[in-house]
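user: can you give me the structure for this one chain? C-alpha cells are fine.
assistant: on it. calling the predictor now.
[tool input]
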Amino acid sequence: MNPDIFRNSTAGQMIRVGQGEAAHWAFAPNPLPPALPFDAELVHTLSEADRALGELAGLGRTLSNPNILIQPFIRREAVLSSRIEGTQASIADVYAYEAQLSHKTTPPNSDVREVVNYVRALEYGLKRLETLPLSLRLLREMHGRLMEGIHGEAAQPGEFRHTQNWIGRPGCTLVEASFVPPPPTEMLTALNTLEQYLHAEDTYPPLFRLVFIHYQFEAIHPFIDGNGRMGRLLLTLLLVKWNLLPTPLLYLSAYFERQREAYYAQLLAVSERGTWHDWTLFCLRGITEQAHDANTRAKRLQDLQAQWRRKIQKSRSAGLLLGIIDQLFEHPFITTADVQTRFGVAHPTVMRALRKLEAQQIVSESSGQYHHQIYVAQAILDIVQ
C-alpha cells in the first residue's frame, strides 16, 4: 500500500504498523460525518432519490401481504450481492434448494450455500431489529449466520477480526495491497465510533448518512471475510430502521453489480482523495435507479397475481387454488408436501389442485420425479430475475 496516494485524503489517516521489514501502512477512516458542501447537482440528485424512494414506500404501505414481494426481493438481493463476490448461483438455484430442504437432499454447492446464508442473515437481522438496536452485536450475530459453514473456522463467523486483513489482486502480499484497513485495535475504536454515529443526531439527510455509513463500514473492514456482503446488508437494515421504507423492498446490489468496477473505484477514491461528493452522487443515482426498478417489478408481480386469481376465481376448490397462488409469490418453487403442510389437505387434493394450475400454465413440474415433485411458477422467476 503506497502511503503517498492516501497522504492528503480528508477521509482518514495513514498508520505505520510494525517495525523493520514487517512494517506496513494501514488506513484508519476519520469519524463521520465528513464535510460535504451542497451544490445544485447534489441537491437535484437527492431530490430524485427521495422521490423515487417515497413512491416505493407508498407502494409498500398498500400491500395486504408484503411477503408476496419481500420474499422474492430478498432472494434477488442475496443472489446479486453474493455475485459481486464471485458466486455463480441463480435465484432459481436458491428456490430449488429451499423447496427440497424437507426431503433431506444432498447439501447445496458452495455458491448456493453462500446465497442461502445471505437470505438467512438478512431475515434474521430484520427480525432482530424488533427487539435489538442496530448495533455491533447485531452485526456480529448476522455475520455468524452469513458465514456459517463457509471457509470453515478461518472465516471466524460472528467475530470481528483479530488480525490484519487487506484488499488487492489475488495472491498479493500485505505490502503490495491496494488498501489496508485499520489494524485490530484501531478497528475497534473506529467501530465503536461508527456505532455511536448510527444513533446520533445529524443535520445531513438520511440518504447521505446511509452512503456515508456504507463507505465507513467497508473502510473499517471488520471481518476476516464477508465485509462486502455485510456492508450491503447494513444498507437494508438502515432503510427499515430509519423508516425510509415500511418493508425491505429496495436493494442496491443490482446497481453495484452492474457498476462493479465503478463501485470499487468510488470506494477507493474516497479513501485516497476524500471524494465524498462523487461517492454520494454515485450511490444516490443507484437508489433512484433501484427504487424505480423495484416499483416496476412489484407492479408486474401484482398484475400477474391478479391475472392468475381471475383465471381460477370460479373454479372448484377456488379457495385452495387461490391460497397456492399466493404461496407461489412467496416461493415460486413448491412441493406437494409444502401445500399439504400449509393448508392441511390430503395429497390427492393437492395433486388435483396443482394439475389445475398446470393446465392454466401457472405452474409446471420441474423435477421429473414421481415422488417429491417440485412445481415452479416460471413467470414469477422471469420478473424477479
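assistant: here you go. The longest helix spans residues 276-312. The longest strand covers residues 12-17.
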